[in-house]
Amino acid sequence: MNRRSLQTFDNSKDPNGPMYYNGIYHQFYQYNPNGSLWGNIVWGHSVSTDLINWIRLEPAIERTTPSDINGCWTGSATILKGGRPVIIYTGADTEKRQVQNIVFPKNVSDPYLKEWIKPDNNPLIQPVGQGLNSDQFRDPTTSWIGPDGLWRIAIGAELNGYSAALLYKSEDFVNWTRVDHPLYSSNASTMWECPDFFAVLPGKNSGLDLSAAIPNGAKHVLKMSLDNCDKYMVGVYDLKSDTFVPDTVLDDRRLWSRIDYGNYYASKSFFDSKRGRRIIWGWTNETDSSSDDVAKGWAGIHAIPRTIWLDSNSKQLLQWPVEEIESLRREEVSHQGLELNQGDLFEIKGIDTLQADVEIDFELTSIDSAGPFDPSWLLDIEKHCREAGASVHGDVGPFGLVVLASDNMEEHTSVYFRVYKSQEKYMILMCSDLRKSSLRPELYTPAYGGFFEFDLEKEKTISLRTLIDRSAVESFGGGGKLCIMARVYPVTVINGGTRMYAFNNGTSTVKVPQLKAWSMRRAQVNVKMG
């Protein structure tokens, strides 16, 4: 069984309400307690002191009232003044309308917050008002306090046939009033799921609490889930108009920035007051079949939690695995001063290649030969990754990693870069090609990919970090400029060991000044309490 063992919530869907409270990290998630297929959704609940090892508790929110009898769907947690946590979530009511409900912890002195109480006044917010679709009104954000002292939340919705993050205000967190304008809306799509709204600064440990004073130089981010991926905009929160104003508006949503360019959806972030950082979680689904899900008894995992922050140019988000994941590192191998000529494969030995953490720096000996960048590639990057695969020779690239490879290379997954020259900058293509990841038929095996800008004349090296965990391959390019989460199901994993290589198939020689790789031990994930 290709079971993920570094960090996972088996049989889980959307991350819900992550928070840090009284020394404990809480992660809730969409969960079917009766099976591995969608349905009977409640809020699963797991707790941790280190974001890596998790204890599974009983479900926190179950389908017990008319306002959530048909499903306890996605929502968010907020820490109120005085430190009391609260959750607002979407329920599917008796008419299958989407309404917003609230729950409070039964005992705030319980660090695990095992029990939650539903007040009698649910639902708090109903899909009423001109232009609203009661079937497209869900996933409230974490709340924040505006300059007028009132609480605010945003809810994903379809408004007059277009996508919107609707804005609501409250003085007491119980009685909510819809503001006469959305936080932001767009006619580029019809519905946003799982919106997230937060403030960011440059620097890994410069996370911000949206309800605290936001310093100069900070930006705001509006994230939304659509088109089977998570997209985002960077901009400012205009306090006078109570609206989000993106720095750049692109009419074609295919060009919007993405949190992750692979299998990653319904992400949710929170401010970690323990470390002063913002952490984001995403859901990655299975890409085999529903019958496979039933056979193994679980479906869906969460990606490794990531620290998320703003780049120095205040234009895009950067992400990196939380540093706690390094506590799982065991045997280490290290190589310096490698040279990879065209066609070279350098095998990385001495570690468990099924559960590994690999960091490689690639130094380019010649960038003058980089081919020209075609902006039309941005409209279908996966198509370009398919056409410019890891075995297709280029000028500068492809170079990168081959992971989960069988002895004869019939099965392998390639994570690699290609370098292109734009008018005034270099564009780096990063692909995670799953087309030969398994000999099993009827799997979804795309070639994921994305582009990021890079100042090669200044930085000289391009970094790649890949975490491998049997069926999960999670990669971070350019120091976190671009992330690709992938699911693979190689037969080789079932039968035994796999191989791992650094490679170069470009005509230009690539140097590897530093390569480090570690075996990763198994985390204690969703161990049942008691």
Question: Could you provide a short overview of the structure?
Answer:
This protein is mainly beta. It contains four helices and 39 strands.
Characteristics:
mainly beta, seven-stranded mixed sheet, 4 helices, 47% strand
Give structural notes:
The chain is built from 4 helices and 39 strands. It is globular and about 70 Å long. It is mostly beta strands. 4% of the residues lie in helices and 47% in strands. The mean pLDDT is 94. The chain starts with 11 loop residues before the first strand and ends with a strand. Strands 25, 26, 28, 34, 35, 36 and 38 form a 7-stranded antiparallel beta sheet that branches. Strands 27, 29, 30, 31, 32, 33 and 37 form a 7-stranded mixed beta sheet that branches. GO terms for molecular function: hydrolase activity, hydrolyzing O-glycosyl compounds. Residues 324-519 form the Glycosyl hydrolase family 32 C-terminal domain. One of its GO terms (biological process) is carbohydrate metabolic process. Belongs to the glycosyl hydrolase 32 family. Keywords: Glycoprotein, Glycosidase, Hydrolase.
